């Protein structure tokens, strides 16, 4: 994929390999990995346990440098300039109110202007947290905490959201609801998203495209366009095509 040709590409991995060096030796985590992410896409990355899915996000965000190959971001931007990272747990500070937690990235990146705070508060109001801004995290449900975490991530206006199994710490019923919430917010805000998950059903329910990784060393062994359009996650799960995709992806993961 050449970014000079396709201006919609915002992130590109080109022949990326990653080797971890330790005192006891070397571990090849990724080998010749190539894929691209286009503006507005919601991409899910799945793979066997321990294959290095989180390594993909760390490489994308510039937290790790590839051992070989290249990673290109549109406009040459890096790190905090373009990415927002959402982790497995919400990581809200318990001694800060919801409002103060949402403002935290603005403080860290020295973007804590009145305009940016107002925009963050508008997002909180828009997505149902307006009445909870003075509450502390332990006063919120798990779903509301994840919503607050996403709004905190959006406060810095990232171009690409990196989602590291953001629903895995929630119980099943809450996960379904929060998955819908996060999907709708990302779509409404017209964000590009790269999600890594071990959950096949979750990937099918949110993604425009799914990348399947091999066992370590990770490489992309399949890529699928799902063509569900703007159908929300819960409705996708009711589609006859859902089980067809699940069976195909399950087989690819267990080859």
Note the main sheet.
6 strands, mixed
- How is the CATH topology of the domain at 1-82 and 160-171 and 195-255 named? Rossmann fold
Second rung of CATH, namely the architecture of the domain at 1-82 and 160-171 and 195-255: 3-Layer(aba) Sandwich
- Top CATH class of the domain at 1-82 and 160-171 and 195-255: Alpha Beta
What gap, in angstroms, lies between the N and C termini?
27 Å
**Beta-sheet strand percentage?**
25-35%
Structural class call reads alpha/beta
Describe the protein in words:
With 255 residues, the chain is α/β, with parallel strands linked by helices. It has a domain of 155 residues: P-loop containing nucleotide triphosphate hydrolases (Rossmann fold), CATH 3.40.50. The protein contains 8 helices and 9 strands. A 6-stranded mixed β-sheet has the order 5-6-7-3-8-9, with helices on both faces. A 3-stranded antiparallel β-sheet has the order 2-1-4, covered by helices on one side. A hairpin with a 2-residue loop joins strand 1 and strand 2. Helix 4 runs parallel beside helix 5 and helix 6 packs across helix 8. The protein is globular and about 50 Å long. The N terminus is likely disordered.
Set out the fold topology.
Layout: E1 9-22, E2 25-38, E3 42-46, H1 53-60, E4 68-73, E5 83-86, H2 98-108, H3 114-126, H4 142-154, E6 160-164, H5 172-188, E7 192-196, H6 200-206, E8 209-213, E9 220-225, H7 233-237, H8 240-253
Parallel strand pairs: 3-7, 3-8, 5-6, 6-7
Antiparallel strand pairs: 1-2, 1-4, 8-9
């Amino acid at each position: 994929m050449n970014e000079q040709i396709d201006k919609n590409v915002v992130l590109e991995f080109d022949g990326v390999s990653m080797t971890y060096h330790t005192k006891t030796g070397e571990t090849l985590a990724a080998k010749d990995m190539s894929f691209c992410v286009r503006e507005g896409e919601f991409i899910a990355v799945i793979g066997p346990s321990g294959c290095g899915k989180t390594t993909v996000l760390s490489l994308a965000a510039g937290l790790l440098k590839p051992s070989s190959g290249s990673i290109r971001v549109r406009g040459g931007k890096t790190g905090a300039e373009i990415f927002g990272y959402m982790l497995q747990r919400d990581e809200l500070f318990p001694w800060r109110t919801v409002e103060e937690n949402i403002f935290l990235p603005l403080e860290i990146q020295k973007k804590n202007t009145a305009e940016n705070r107002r925009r963050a508060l508008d997002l909180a109001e828009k997505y149902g947290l307006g009445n909870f801004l003075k509450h502390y995290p332990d006063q919120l449900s798990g779903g509301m905490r994840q919503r607050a975490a996403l709004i905190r991530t959006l406060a810095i206006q990232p171009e690409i959201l990196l989602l590291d199994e953001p629903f895995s710490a929630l119980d099943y019923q809450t996960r379904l609801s929060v998955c819908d919430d996060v999907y709708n917010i990302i779509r409404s805000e017209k964000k590009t998203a790269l999600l890594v998950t071990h959950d096949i059903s979750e990937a099918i329910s949110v993604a425009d495209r799914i990348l399947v990784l091999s066992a370590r060393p990770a490489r992309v062994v399949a890529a699928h366009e799902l063509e569900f359009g703007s159908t929300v996650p819960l409705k996708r799960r009711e589609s006859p095509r859902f089980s067809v995709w699940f069976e195909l992806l399950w087989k690819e993961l267990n080859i």
